[in-house]
Specification:
Elements lengths: L4 H12 L4 H15 E6 L2 E7 L5 H10 L5 E3 L5 E4 L3 H6 L3 E4 L2 E4 L5 H4 L2 H15 E4 L2 E2 L6 E2 L3 E6 L2 H13 L5 E5 L2 E6 L2 H10 L3 H25 L5 H20 L8 H12 L5 H7 L6 H22 L1
Bound molecules: zinc ion (ZN).
Zinc ion binds next to α2 and α6.
């Protein structure tokens, strides 16, 4: 299955990330904020970090850098169990001492707020552990553009959400907040801002994918417009023909032309031999076995086939 855009982005962030010692704390704190289940009994704390498999190696590296002992339980949702982790929670400023009792700190620890690298790492951490991102995609069914731009980060509490919103604001990002079924979330909708955040997170390749999706979206709109007035404008007809020829060559190269019926194969051949021919002329060249509309739809199907080949190659 093709990995989602979100998965690709997280992969890139994790791959590029070489956290400084101070930022190791920021990432671990983000993991605890996002996926940590903490229990404190008689001053003894246990924390469970239940993760997506994608994040196991990265998290293990963080824990090893901090020389933290853990039990690892593998499964669909792998889990690190940190026993007697009071010292760690205090160091991460996830927990503090109140009147002689240890309790959780509300919101993001002060030490991350006052340090630019740590603030950035913390926000990145909140995204990889508790966030997701989506961009529009071309449906393979009807070649239409589906979905929109959306980046969100789920945080357990309102305090965390508000603190994270403030940190984002310090970097010039305007996160919106809302609650959804008992959790609090931060989100962004503008494609410009999401692009800037991906760069801020260190996902520059992902940023290029996002740019491509924007270009593809406007190109697709142009192509659709072209197809609709193919008779009205000869230049556009030539452009459409070029697109068809590129598509046919691509299908031949992929060895997939024989997946079409004989008539379509004949049509593809005729198109290759007659790049200037209008749809009306193709009807004649095909000895009228196809109507103009049938030719149009079959050529459109040929262009769609290239999207399918592209999709299965990535
Ligand atoms: Zn730092």
């Amino acid at each position: 299955m093709k990995p989602t855009f979100c998965k690709i982005i997280k992969e890139e962030i994790i791959k590029n990330e070489k956290p400084k010692p101070c930022c190791v704390d920021a990432f671990l704190a983000a993991a605890v904020y996002s996926v940590g289940a903490i229990s404190i009994e008689n001053g003894i704390a246990t924390t469970e970090l239940r993760l997506n498999p994608q994040l196991v190696a990265f998290t293990k590296e963080l824990l090893d850098k901090k020389r933290i002992e853990y039990r690892f339980i593998d499964g669909k949702k792998p889990c690190f169990v940190l026993e007697n982790c009071e010292k760690l929670l205090r160091e991460l400023e996830v927990a503090g001492d109140y009147n002689g009792y240890m309790d959780l700190v509300e919101g993001i620890g002060e030490k991350y707020k006052n340090n630019e690298c740590c603030a950035r790492s913390l926000l990145k951490g909140l995204f990889i552990y508790g966030g997701s991102v989506k961009i529009p995609y071309i449906s393979e069914l009807d070649s239409q553009v589906k979905g929109g731009y959306h980046l969100e980060i789920v945080t357990g509490s309102l305090f965390l959400a508000l603190d994270a919103q403030e940190l984002f604001a310090e970097f010039g990002f305007d996160a919106k907040t809302r609650s959804r079924s008992g959790t609090q979330l931060l989100y962004f909708k503008s494609s410009d801002e999401i692009g800037d955040i991906l760069i801020f997170f260190g996902a520059t390749r992902g940023m290029l994918d996002l740019e491509n999706s924007r270009i593809l979206r406007s190109m697709r709109a142009n192509v659709n417009r072209q197809s609709n007035c193919v008779n009205a404008n000869i230049t556009r007809a030539v452009e459409a023909s070029q697109e068809q020829i590129i598509a046919i060559n691509c299908i031949i190269k992929a060895g997939k032309l024989n997946e079409f019926d004989e008539t379509s194969q004949k049509l593809a051949q005729t198109r290759l031999e007659n790049p200037e021919a209008t749809l009306d002329e193709l009807v004649e060249l095909m000895n009228k076995v196809l109507s103009k509309s049938a030719i149009y739809h079959r050529l459109k199907r040929i262009i769609q086939k290239v999207d399918e080949i592209d999709a299965s190659n990535t």
